[in-house]
Design a protein that fits this description.
The chain has two domains: 135 residues, OB fold (Dihydrolipoamide Acetyltransferase, E2P), CATH 2.40.50; 278 residues, 2-Layer Sandwich (BirA Bifunctional Protein, domain 2). Helix content is 33%, strand content 25%. The structure holds one RNA strand of 73 nucleotides.
Length: 493
RNA sequence: GGGCCGUUAACUCAGUCGGUAGAGUAUCUGCCUUUUAAGCAGAGAGCCGCUGGUUCGAGUCCAGCACGGCCCA
């Protein structure tokens, strides 16, 4: 258990004490590394049989496997770039050093000076001339064959997960490459990357419940942002007319396989563009990232084959509800009828919700799981899109789309509302919704309206759920598999 | 918030009808100087998630709680 009194841990402590008693420093920091495992692999690949077997190497890493004989041993050690076998024998290191070496365990960090040779099976191996302890591990690693499986331990002690499960490490390398590919794509097109406040006096930019906090010195309530949107648009007003941010937002909601209270979003804004332009750009971006990371533009996600080649399907919200959700078109403008339908499907709609909200709730339950191939859903009611521009043809509709892949919302974008008078009216509607008990409704943001009054060029903007997209490209069944330290409850005793 | 499932050695897991705790790996001891989940022989290791209840007796049955997983809202 975690109290450290188990037999294995007691034995480690005794070994550590025995080493200390013999004058061994358990935690030195003066070992200089000349080569990483990757360097050795590359040099072998380059030189093949011609590798110089007298060249000295100084290498370091964690012992991850140890096969010990009487007076010799094979071990595998690992650094960030890979793992390599080493051979330690008494004839080479001497009796004294070999005696100390016998006290080392799997999990300890070591430094080895030696030369390369091939074993009789042809495996390139570091023959130790000198071996040193660099850090004593006081707890044993999980078992080598089955690894660490308990999901709770994997998340709470992610370092063990990373040591024991190579596929986990691969997921997070892929995650980093995905983010890099998004960044490369946008920088290439002249976007400026910025950072805007995560602590906001008025939370805005999404319909979501915020976390609240308090600044002591300023005596000021603050919210963790639910989206960076309103700040990024202030930057567009300030003349940065291609701008993006990749960072955390926070929503005070339950956790699930698709929701973590803190999550990573890409938001970008492009002036002189419309939501139509944005859909085209979204296809290009996501195809580019997929191609960069996977080398192809198709992949399998949880048994579904996903092809990112375009053009992607486009459906209006009402079409989707009708054709995929089986909602009778005559009901679409009948609030009472929609409420009855929701009730019959077991979908909870809180009191006083307007028609648009009911439509999107029905959509989430009846349509979203069916949108497997990349699909844009367009034409959302204005009342659920308080920051989006009205359609010129249908003023009750917003120029807005959401992108769905594998039954999951991946992106949300629209032509931005830049009419300050309309924006103020929309905020007032949201305030009314909030008074009707909708905790997710927007707050009034007078300062943002003032900013709009200075003039924002016609602009289109979008948010992309990075964690969800990483799930797709890594075939992860849960968002916790793509977040290094997902939020878990404290263990109470 | 609701439903179902899980929690046993450091790790991965068994544990029958309620009868006093098992395996593999790891660890420890001995042997072993080219192994590949090394091998052979031996040994030690447990708050059975927590609290209560039923019972002569609970890992096992019941209730509550905690944490986790999946599904639903």
């Amino acid at each position: 258990m975690m109290d450290g009194s188990s037999e294995v841990i007691r034995q480690r402590r005794e070994k550590a004490k025995a080493l200390t008693d013999r004058g061994v420093d358990l935690y030195p920091n003066d070992f200089k590394v000349s080569h990483r495992v990757e360097d050795v692999r590359q040099s072998i690949a380059r030189q093949g049989e011609g590798v110089d077997d007298t060249a000295p190497f100084a290498m370091a890493g964690r012992i991850i496997m140890l096969r010990s004989f009487g007076k010799a041993a094979f071990l595998h050690f690992r650094d960030h770039t890979g793992q390599l076998q080493a051979y330690v024998k008494q004839d080479e290191v001497g009796e004294e050093a070999y005696g100390l070496f016998k006290q080392l365990d799997v999990g300890d960090f070591i430094g080895i000076r030696g030369t390369l040779f091939q074993t009789k099976t042809g495996e390139w191996t570091l023959l130790a001339k000198k071996i040193r302890l660099l850090c004593k591990a006081m707890r044993p690693l999980p078992e080598k064959f089955h690894g660490l499986r308990d999901p709770e331990k994997r998340y709470r002690q992610r370092y063990l997960d990373l040591i024991m499960n190579p596929s986990v490490r691969k997921v997070f390398v892929t995650r980093a490459r995905i983010i890099q590919a998004f960044r490369d794509f946008l920088l290439e097109r002249g976007f400026l990357e910025v950072e805007t406040p995560m602590m906001q006096p008025i939370p805005g930019g999404a319909e979501a419940t915020p976390f609240q906090t308090f600044h002591n010195a300023l005596g000021m309530n603050l919210f963790l942002r639910v989206a960076p949107e309103l700040y990024l648009k202030r930057l567009v007003i300030g003349g940065i007319d291609r701008v993006f941010e990749i960072n955390r937002s926070f929503r005070n909601e339950g956790v699930s396989t698709r929701h973590n209270p803190e999550f990573t979003m890409l938001e970008f804004y492009l002036a002189y563009a419309t939501y139509e332009d944005l859909m085209t750009l979204t296809e290009e971006t996501l195809r580019f990232v997929t191609q960069q990371v996977l080398g192809v533009t198709h992949f399998s996600y949880q048994g579904s084959n996903i092809n990112m080649d375009g053009p992607w399907a486009r459906l209006t919200l009402e079409q989707a509800l009708n054709e995929l959700g089986g909602v009778d078109p005559s009901l679409l403008n009948d609030r009472q009828g929609l409420l009855a339908l929701a009730k019959s499907k077991g979908i909870e709609i809180k009191k006083g919700r307007r028609r648009g909200k009911i439509l999107t709730k029905l959509f989430d339950a009846l349509v979203e799981p069916k949108l497997i191939a990349p699909t844009f859903v367009v034409d959302y009611p204005v009342e659920v899109s308080p920051l989006a521009r009205r359609s010129r043809l249908e003023p009750d509709m917003a120029e807005r789309f959401e992108l769905f892949i594998a039954g999951s919302e991946i992106a949300n974008g629209f032509s931005e509302l830049n009419d300050p008078v309309d924006q103020k009216r929309r905020f007032l509607d949201q305030v009314a919704d909030r008074q009707d008990g909708d905790e997710e409704a927007h707050y009034m943001d007078e300062d943002y309206v003032t900013a709009l009054e200075y003039g924002m060029p016609p602009t289109a903007g979008e948010g992309v759920g990075i964690d969800r997209f990483v799930m797709l490209l890594t075939d992860a069944p849960s968002i916790r598999e793509v977040i290094l330290f997902p939020l878990l409850k404290n263990i109470r005793h």
